Amino acid sequence: MRDFWKAAACAALFLLGHPAWGALDPDRPTVLVTGANRGIGLEFVRQFAERDYNVIATARKPEAADDLNALAEAHEHVVVEQLDVTDHARIEALAAAYAEQPIDILLSNAAITPRYKTAFQRVKGMDFDMARQSFEVNALAPLKLAQAFMPNVAASQQKKIVMMSSKAGSFAEGPKMPMMYSYRGSKAALDMYAYTLSFETAKKGITTVLLSPGTVNTTPGMKMPNAIEPEESVRKMLAVIDGLTLENNGQFLNYEDGRVVGW
Ligand SMILES: NC(=O)c1ccc[n+]([C@@H]2O[C@H](COP(=O)([O-])OP(=O)(O)OC[C@H]3O[C@@H](n4cnc5c(N)ncnc54)[C@H](OP(=O)(O)O)[C@@H]3O)[C@@H](O)[C@H]2O)c1
């Protein structure tokens, strides 16, 4: 039976037409990062690569992901895969291609993040298409990824599912202002999906957490007040991820100190 799945995985790999796990070292831990071409995702790839992880770095448009491709060229254990996280068939094809690959950390990072121009839009100007799209990318996609890659995480040493959330989606700690409707609603939904999922993952020894990265400068050419740089945010999140145990399963944690963020 195992041979059948291996053959199926190889066939899927052939159909996908890429080198995939040929470049991954079985003796290293492995992380899969979505939205890896820029911002916090790119910095995760950089820092995991420097720690000698295998990195499966996904991007919507790898052909235009110059910074990511440069990292992959510099680190032979970084592989770049095309993935629009709303494309569930593609997620399943990738999961089939990597069926034999343990994934220590499944890191759902990709998101539609608020744009400065629309962040303060009141309900009168609400863009409902954007809201639906945000729900697909920010809430449903991390759950679909968890569904597809759960066996890979269960087969790994560390067994961690990490989803990037935001305090903007928290009733307790979010801004008490009418802003970022689509983003806040989608992140609040993500929090509940991860919380619900944690009751399943506990049974498999998998720790599922949400992380707040802080306020991070990721818009090129724009510095937000009191924001930190991706290097600091990711360095501190890696310390939190390193320290995760099953006790943290189902929690929403802060980047800086690993404290529990209020829902
Ligand atoms: N920056 C902050 O202050 C902050 C604060 C709280 C939470 N967060 C969270 O941290 C994570 C990273 O934030 P960031 O600031 O680095 O975001 P960002 O700079 O806006 O980058 C978003 C990433 O998600 C990708 N993405 C968007 N839609 C996608 C799709 N359908 N399929 C695949 N990839 C898609 C983008 O790819 P393209 O380049 O192809 O668009 C890009 O790689 C997000 O989950 C965000 O909500 C950030």
Order of helices and strands: HEHEHEHEHHEHEHE
User: Number of folding domains?
Assistant: 1
In CATH, the topology is named: Rossmann fold
Count of DSSP helices? 8
Helix content: 40-55%
Radius of gyration, whole Å: 18 Å
Our measurement of the CA-to-CA distance between the termini, rounded to an integer number of angstroms, reads 43 Å
Beta strand %: 5-15%
Structural class per helix/strand content? alpha/beta
Kindly report the average pLDDT value.
93
Largest sheet: 7 strands, parallel
- Indicate the CATH architecture: 3-Layer(aba) Sandwich
Order of neighbouring strands in the sheet with most strands: 3-2-1-4-5-6-7
The count of DSSP E runs of length 2 or more, i.e. the number of strands, is: 7
The 3D shape can be described as globular
Going by CATH, the homologous superfamily would be NAD(P)-binding Rossmann-like Domain
Quick one: CATH class? Alpha Beta
The distinct ligands, each listed once, are: NADP nicotinamide-adenine-dinucleotide phosphate
